């Protein structure tokens, strides 16, 4: 086990259903280097969300192993932050109180004032500094997702898992949040795993894209994204990016035929 990466090694996982066993992952092996950002794509139902639960320790594989920076995962880890398509903010708490929530759950040595200072720093990074006293229902969908990202980063997680966090947003809001993610990654370094169905999103946000095969999923293809210090939305329309997207679409088509 390497201390500088997340390792999924020979993982096999099955769900028990009313109609019998349903193999979801088969001999899945992946490595996510420390401080990298990796997108995982593949056909619907191929096991992408199962993979996130294995990394977070919410699931234990039937066989094989999952380790984070040299430590085998056998239970949920407080050092993993998660954000989902639905922000799931608590309406009876203000935005500031929602962002602070992880420290109340995992415990923290920070004082109340230090917690508020940390939360306000994150809210300022994403442009929500004037909305800390608002309730979730008073914010737009994009603003709620920004608050959700702040909450996921509140306890400075080693690993940040994003499970289709922008899937329910309109195109303009989604692209705006892609740029926010680049800024957050600079200001709040993390090792990230992004689950998405949006190939443009995967290419724009991450360092590599992993294509999973049809169920039971194994690693089908890995695309390394060229290292660009500053990415802009215009980069999505370059010949190089278009070639990468076409390549990924072909791989998804192959994976769908296998399922």
Describe this structure in a few short sentences:
The protein has 259 residues and is α/β, with parallel strands linked by helices. The chain is 36% helix and 25% strand. The mean pLDDT is 90.
How would you describe what is shown here?
With 259 residues, the chain is α/β, with parallel strands linked by helices. The protein is 36% helix and 25% strand. It contains seven helices and ten strands. It has helices at 48-56, 95-106, 112-125, 141-153, 171-187, 199-205, 239-258, and strands at residues 5-17, 20-33, 37-41, 63-68, 71-72, 80-84, 159-163, 191-195, 208-212, 219-224. Strand 9 and strand 10 form a beta hairpin. Helix 2 crosses helix 3 (112-125) and helix 2 packs parallel to helix 4. The radius of gyration is 18 Å and the shape is globular.
Number of beta-strand segments: 10
**Structural class assignment:** alpha/beta
Biggest sheet record: 6 strands, mixed
Share of helix, binned: 25-40%
Average the pLDDT over all residues and give the rounded result.
Answer: 90
Helix count, per DSSP? Answer: 7
Spatial strand order of the main sheet: 6-7-8-3-9-10
Tell me the β content: 25-35%
Shape category: globular
Written as H for each helix and E for each strand, in order along the chain, the element string is EEEHEEEHHHEHEHEEH
Radius of gyration: 18 Å
Termini gap: 31 Å
The parts where pLDDT drops under 50 for at least 5 residues are: none
What topology does this entry show?
Layout: E1 5-17, E2 20-33, E3 37-41, H1 48-56, E4 63-68, E5 71-72, E6 80-84, H2 95-106, H3 112-125, H4 141-153, E7 159-163, H5 171-187, E8 191-195, H6 199-205, E9 208-212, E10 219-224, H7 239-258
Parallel strand pairs: 3-8, 3-9, 6-7, 7-8
Antiparallel strand pairs: 1-2, 1-4, 4-5, 9-10
Helix pairs in contact: 2-3, 2-4
């Amino acid at each position: 086990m390497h201390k500088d990466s997340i390792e999924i090694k020979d993982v096999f996982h099955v769900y028990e259903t009313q109609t019998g066993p349903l193999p979801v992952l088969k001999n899945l092996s992946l490595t996510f280097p420390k401080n990298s950002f990796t997108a995982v794509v593949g056909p619907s139902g191929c096991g992408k969300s199962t993979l996130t639960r294995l990394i977070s320790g919410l699931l234990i594989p039937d066989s094989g192993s999952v380790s984070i920076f040299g430590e085998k995962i056998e239970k949920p880890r407080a050092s993993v932050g998660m954000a989902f398509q639905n922000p799931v903010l608590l309406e009876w708490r203000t935005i500031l109180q929602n962002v602070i929530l992880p420290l109340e759950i995992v415990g923290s040595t920070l004082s109340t004032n230090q917690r508020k200072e940390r939360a306000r720093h994150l809210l300022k990074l994403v442009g929500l500094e004037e909305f800390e006293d608002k309730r979730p229902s008073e914010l737009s969908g994009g603003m709620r997702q920004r608050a959700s990202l702040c909450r996921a980063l509140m306890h400075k997680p080693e690993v940040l898992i994003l499970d289709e966090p922008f899937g329910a947003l309109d195109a303009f809001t989604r692209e705006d949040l892609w740029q926010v993610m680049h800024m957050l990654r600079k200001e709040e370094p993390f090792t990230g795993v992004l689950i998405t169905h949006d190939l443009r999103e995967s290419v724009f946000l991450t360092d590599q894209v992993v294509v999973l095969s049809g169920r039971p999923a194994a690693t089908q293809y890995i695309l390394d994204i060229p290292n660009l210090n500053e990415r802009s939305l215009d980069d999505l329309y370059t010949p190089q990016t278009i070639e990468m997207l076409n390549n990924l679409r072909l791989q998804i088509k192959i994976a769908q035929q296998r399922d």
